[in-house]
Structures are given as C-alpha cells and as structure tokens.
Fold these 4 entries.
Entry 1:
Amino acid sequence: MKNFLLSIIKPSGLWARILVFATLAGIVAAGFTGHFELLRQYLDTDSLTYQVGDVRISAYTVLRGILVLALVFWTAAILSDLIEKRLAHLSRMRKTTRVLVTKVFQIALYILSGLVALDLIGLDLTTLTVFGGALGIGLGFGLQKVASNFVSGLILLFERSVEEDDLIELPDGTSGYVRRSSARFILIETFDGKEVLVPNEDFITNRVTNWTLSSSKARVEVPVGVAYGSDLEKVHALMLEAAREHPRCLEDPEPVCFLRTFGDSSINFLLYFWVGNIVDGRWGPQSEVMFAIWRKFRENGIEIPFPQRDLHIRSGLPGREEPLREPGGTGEPDEASGSDEASDA
C-alpha cells in the first residue's frame, strides 16, 4: 500500500508515462466536449466558495489546482527519471558526479515545476514573500540540522572526499565501507555487517580517515622481539624474506625492517610492508607473515622470549629484630620457654 501511494505521488517509469498520458487525454477530451464549462458552473458557485480577503477560493479552483499540480509534478518526475537513467549509462562520469548532477537537476526541476504550477493556478507569486520569510525562520530554528546535513551532502558531492565503496574510519572508532549517500546521511556498512547512518554534517565538522581517497595501498606493521644472543643480521634477513614471499606484498614500496629497541627481555624489531588494496584487508597478510616469521625462526634456532625477571633473595640481614610472638602461640619458641621454666624449677 505504501509503495502504491508513493508511486501515485512520484510516479516513475512506464507507470508514470501511462498515468500522465491518460490524464492529459482525459483533460483534452473534456475540454473539446465542453465538460469543463459544465463543471465550472456546478462547482464555481457562491455556496461552494470561500472568501479570504481579496482571494476567492471555490471548489472549481481547488480541483483545477490539484490537476495542475499533479500534471506538473508527474511530468517533473518523468523527466527526473529519464535524466537519472541517462546519466547511469555514462561510464566516463564518476558515480558521485552522477549523483551530484542528478540531485542538482532534481532540485532545480522541482522548484521550477512548483513556480509554474502556482502561476498556472493563478496564484500571485508576490504573496510568496511572506511564506519565504516564514520558511527562513523555520530553517533557522526547527530545520537547522536538516538544512545543515543537506548542504553538507552537497559539499561532499562537490569535493568527492567521500564516495561509495570507500573504506573510512570515524573518530569514535566506527570503520566500514560507504554503501550509499543521500541528502541527509551516509550509510556505512561495518565489518560485522551493521549498517550505520552517519549525518552528512559529521563528515564536514569532524576528522575522518578515508583509507581509499587517493590510493588503496596500506602499510602493515609486524613488531617482533628476539632473545639476546640471537644473530641480529640473520633475524633482519629472515623477517624481510617472510614479507617478500607473501603474494600481496608490494615491491614498490619495498618492505623494510628496523631494529627499534633493546628491551628488558628482548631485542625488538619492526617490520613494515605494503599491500596493494586495503579493501581486501590487512589482518590476513599480517597474520600470514607472522606465521612465516615464526616458522623461519624455529628452523634457524632463533628464540622469541617471554618477559623475564631476575629475583635476588637476601636473608639474615644484620640488625634484624626477632618478630614478636603472640601469647599462647605454638611452635619452637614456646617449647624453649617451657624448658627454661623447668630449669628454673
């Protein structure tokens, strides 16, 4: 039912063409046969007329206005649908550019259609100045966020900083792929399948990480610690070898390995290598390279240590007083005390 009502308000495709054609044919036929004059005589009477100042509104005026608005906006919907389909076939134009052109065209088309419809109805357009002022006040208060998100959406489309299928990360930790952009929000599909609706304004006012804005390459980090006494040159060579053997590791930029710190329990290295497309994931290559490093270290007798601590226990410190004994306690001190009492007796 909802889809049927929506198709009546904003028809598209074959349904729209048939509906508009049938309505136009009916109006033309009614005009030739003189039915409009008869209809006006029945509906444009004083009993069916409402007077507001100098404005006279009759049932005939209302019916004519409904027909004009329906025809004008149905025609605008058909043109909008045709333009959108034409732009969809332009493979040279980027997807976001097509969305931007479509939205701008739709906005301009519906504004023009509204003005034409009001003029055909016979409404004086100068009376819209009061309505425009009220609309401005409404935008300034109640619709401020809506207007801000709409303008932010147009800015994003112009700048092309966030496009569909981009991999982005928000300041609150939300990460995922851009699946759809609209006039009010951007739909993000996270890695666990959730769909998050983020207002367009957040992409303008906050710091957003776009992993695929100008390049889809990404760097993978693998920190590794080895035991003291290991052959450091051998460790360095094995780590680079493990990275280069991975099929997704890029040759340019080539992988690099650095000796970072001499830690408390290990000598710490850091391996960097690049993958060509971050959309395919980073954790998989990182895990596989770490497995390869583990196998190579085991084959070459290189140990990855766990944290170690040396404890020195000291006893019999000079000047240490004997701890106090509780009265009635048991043990050697009590036995010694008993023997002393026996000797005194």
Entry 2:
Amino acid sequence: MVASLPNPTFDDVMEFEMPYAPTHKAKTRIRIVNAASAFFKKYGFENVTIDQVMAAAGLTRGGFYAHFKNKEDLFVACVESGMSLLSSPVLAKLRKAEKQGKDWVTSFAELYLSKVHIENPDLGCALPTLSAEVSRSGDLARAAFSKLVDQASGRLGWKLAKEDGVPGMDKPIPVDGEAEQPDLPDGYREEATSMLAMMVGAVVLSRAVDETTAEDILAATRSTILQARDRLPSATGQKTG
C-alpha cells in the first residue's frame, strides 16, 4: 500500500478554476491511466484506491469522475490503452538477449522465473499480481483482464513461432501493447497459453512460500518449459506434441 498522500498542489487547485485547451482533458486522462497502470501492476486491483492513483498523477480526487465512472472503469481504460505486462527493464533485457542471438525462450524463462521477479512485483509481470483479485471483481474488469491474457498468449505464441523459424513470423511485433498479429500456426497458441499459465502459477506460488520452496518451484518450472521446447520440432511450424 502507498503511505501518506501529498497535499493538493497549486496545479490541482487551478485545474478547477481556469479554462484549458481541448487537449487538456485528454492529457489529464492519460496521466491518470499511466499512474493507475503502475499501481495495479505493483499492488493488484483491490489494494489500489482512487485517492492513491490521483495523488500519484498529481491531481485531486474530484477530477477523477470527469474521466471515469469508478475504479473498474479505470482498469478497463488501462487495459485498452495497452497496459504493458512487463516492465521496461525486463523488456530491455529481452531485446538485448535477442540482438545478441541468445535463445529467447531461455532468456524469458530465466528472467520471469527468477528470485528477482518474485521479490520485485513492481518490476515484473502484472498477471501474477492481478489474477486473484480481478477474479473477485465485476464483469467489465474480468473481460478486460481476459483481453490482457489473450494478448499475452498471442504475443508469446508469435515469439515461439519466430524462434522456431516459421515463415511469416519475422514481422517486428512487440511483446506488449496493441498490435495486429499474424495468424499463428497450429499448436503455437495452445503451447503459449500453457506456458503462460505455468509461469504465472509458479510466480504466484513462489511468492506465497519460503525461499527454499520457491527456488524449487522456479527451477522445476524452468526445466519443464525448456525441455518441452527442445522436444518440439520446428521449421515447418507444425506441432506434433
């Protein structure tokens, strides 16, 4: 949870006393969405309050309802804006590994299934933090979260197919954010969904147990994922299971 909230700033007060250009409201909305995305990733859905988000955005609570109906509406906006599941440092490391010709899946598994990720949820993936809490939320939040998972599975499947040398997968599509993806060859979305579920589950469990047990969970999951990849053929893009 966030500690004490700061006092309103001069800009906060003036926001309600002076006219602004038409673009001001859009920029303010972006500030709120960006602040909320960071909080949701770090603290989950239930533990974040509107007051905390608005304070982080440098605004007062009164301005929130000019943009959103409630916290669930804000969460949906975060997802629709392309809320990144992975932090910039993690994405940077993955891009560096790929440029150096390293195996992408190995690099991803080592980063995702690591002690650093377990101990620093704000620097990692949003799925382990959000999963349990969104399941207790409303239909709109659940639908938005479903979209996040679907996007993540699609992008992971694309990366797996690209790594296997499947034709047509060389289009530069980012791991996160909104982007149209090519159709995945048979088997890749299923593999990606299974891999994602395994990794997210491993992180959730590892954060709930002692250090030794967590290390065992992470090591076993990394091993299973990499062994499964080694058994899968590749150049044709067809999976045999």
Entry 3:
Amino acid sequence: MQLKKLTRPGIFSYAAQRTILKSPLRGWIASFLAKGRPRFPAAPDPKVSAAVSDLNTHGIYLMQNYLDSDRIEKIKQAVASLPLDERFSPQRKNLDLDDMPADVHVAEYRTSALLQSDTIMEIANDPFLLQTAAQYLGCKPTISNMSVWWSFPTGGEAQEAENYHRDVDDWRFVKFFLYLTDVDSDSGPHRFVKNSHRSNRLTNLKRITDEEVSANFPQEDQLEMTGKAGDAFMELTFGLHKGQPPRKHRRLLLQVEYSINPVAVYDYSPLKLENFPYDPYVNRLYVTPK
C-alpha cells in the first residue's frame, strides 16, 4: 500500500509542502507554482474582490443564505438512499443513515455518487466560487475534493478532525462549506480561529487542544459557525479549525475544495459524462467529458 502511494502523481510535492509550514515562505512557493498553471478569465466583480480580501486578511468569508431551500432538498433527495462510509476508525462501510451504529461520529457519502447530482455540480462550479478561488490561488482552480457528510451526537471524546488542526493539502488551497441542516451550538458547529492562517503559532501537524488555542489566540478570534441550512462560508483551512462534535442534533454539510494541484493522497477516478457543461480543467480530477 505504501509503495502504491509513492507512485501517485504529485506525491513528492505533496510531501514537501507538509514540511514547510511557516509563513510567508509557503505563500512565495505557492505563487511561483501558480504562475505555471492555466489562468482563469478575471471578472471585475466587487463581491469577488471583497471575498478574496476577507480570505487573505482573516482566513474566512461568510455567505449567509447562499442556497435556497428547494436546492437543499434536491441535494438531500439525491443522497437519501445512498450508503455512508465511516470517516474515522474503524471506517465501517455501507452504513444506513436510518440504522446508524450509535458510536459513529462522522459518516460520508462516496464522491462518485455526488457527481450524479446536478445541484452539487452546479454549486461546485458556481462562477462566484471559481472566480474567488482563482483570484486567491493565482491560477485556474482545480476541484480537488468534494464531500457530503453527517456528524452525529454520539458523546464521548472528540475524534481526529473533531479536534483543532491545520489542513496541509497543497501549497495553497481554499475550501467552501455549506450547511444542509440548521446548525446551532448543539449541532456540531464548525469552529475556526480567525487570522490563524497567517500565524506561525501551533504549526506542528498534530491535533491541538482547546487550551492550546486559547493560550495562543484571542477569544474573539475563535469563531463558532452556527447558521441556518443554506448558509455557507469559504475558509483557508490551513488556519486552525475543527468540526465540533454535535451534542444533540446531527449535522449535514457539503464541502468543495479548490487548490493549485491535485491532492495526492486522494484517489481520483474520473467519470465519463456526456454533455458536461463545466470547465474541463477545473473538473478534470472527477469528470472526463465523453
């Protein structure tokens, strides 16, 4: 298995960027790499400029009421009958939402199934998201991950990404998060430390305690992302963040990642789809037009 991973395209660049965690060196390297990638036609949109400014300054851009209830329902219907796979150990497969084992913290749908949803693909290729990602990345974005997952109120200790951590997926990347259920303080709100994407504190690749975060960052920068179904945000998850474990209510969330490069630890098996209406470069890891 390890040998197979070593043969993946881009694995050595991926490994290298995980050893260089200090700002601004990561940014310089990312900008150099972006210059060699295709460009995305720029649009003079003040909203895009505002989003990129928020991302660069604070690491997060908030998007209330991003999606209407009809399209939220379409996504839910698209995944309603699909099996789920447990994200954390022991990684059980083919789980049923209506018969979920009581100790499962997070379970996700398979990306290959998400590609069949017109609504999800429309969101992932939203011109505003692509323009914002392109201006932030410095090149045409690559959709490098698409995920939809449930978080469950199981109790017990937080697991893996339910603790504070930094994502180190590529030299530069940005993630879009969309709540598909209402999220209050009991529903596992996402937490993000504003401005931490530019900080050289707590850059070790490990799970980080709430106490360590509080000792290094102001309380007012420790955001708790509650919101209604349809609220969304773009975030630089190189900054410190975590998926807070739900206490009472389960949470459904959609995530799309945009990066300069493919994320080498993911397995990409592009589907061949007819009449694919979106940019083939942006979607090349997941879709090959027939």
Entry 4:
Amino acid sequence: MSQKVLVTGANGQLGKELVELFTEKGFEVYGFGRDKMDITNQAQVQEMISTLKPNIVLHSAAHTQVDLAESEPEQAFLINAYGTRNVAVAAEAAGAKLVYVSTDYVFNGTNDEPYNEFSPTSPLGVYGKSKLAGEQFVRDFHSKFFIVRTSWVYGKHGANFVKTMLKLGEERKELSVVADQIGCPTYTLDLA
C-alpha cells in the first residue's frame, strides 16, 4: 500500500515539482491549488484532509509576493498564518506528518554568517512576519512536523528571478540589477 501525500499550493513552482517528484517515487499524490482547496477556508481544509486521510501533508501554499504583502498585510496573514493554522489542525486530526515550507525572511537579513535553525528570528516585513506566524501555528497545533526555511526559489515552473534574467539576457545587451542582496538560490527540484 502506497503512502498518501497531499500537496497544498500544487499550482505553484514548488508545488508542481513536489507533485511530479512524489508521483514518480510511487506515492499516491493529491495536489491542490487554491481552486480546489482554499487553505483560508477552515471547513473545506478539514473536510478534504479528513476525507483523504493522507500520511503526509506538504504545505507549500503561500502568499509569496513580498512587496505586495506590505500593501496587503491582511491577505498575507490570512494565507500564510491562518491558512497554515487550518492545514496544521486538519493534518494533526488526520494523524498526518506535516512539512511546512517557510522562508529566510523570518530573519532580519543583517547577519554576516549563514543562518541556521537556532538563529533568532526577527522578520522586518509583513511577508516574513506572516510566515513566522505560520511557523508558530505549526508548532502550536501539530505534533509531527518539519519546518523548512528556504530562499530565492527557482525552477522550471512559474515565474522566478533566474527565468527573468535569462529572458532579459536574450533581449538586452546589458542588464542592471541590485547589488545589495545576498541569498542562496534554491532549485525547486533540489528542495522537493
């Protein structure tokens, strides 16, 4: 009997990669985008997860537009914090392990050394604060969880910085980008 895996955010660049990879590995995969399971709808999340009874929930759904989160804080918190709470509560009730995909934005970005799981969190913006609130809900409402903090995600699906630079590189002779940010690009297949 194969393990059942439920993927939230299955229409996103990481979610699509998770669905493909886990399907290839022989898991019984149920991938849901917002159109099929709105994580902000507690009753819908509870019903879907309790009906499917997955062994593992891979929670990659998120409000990921960092700049937009600043002007839409309620929406960012609704999805990243309360939506995550809904998933955590339902996954716990179903006895499923939970993997929550978080972000390096939970840190303030002022360290000169790489962050690790013991580094103190201190998000500066709404996006980081909403994802950290999601982490706390996972800790508070689930007993078998993993929190994965990632950064600068890119891959074959969806829009991302790498694709944008490649496209602009074909169109222009010269590119100019900000030079004051340091990060760790993460390939979606490696992350999955």
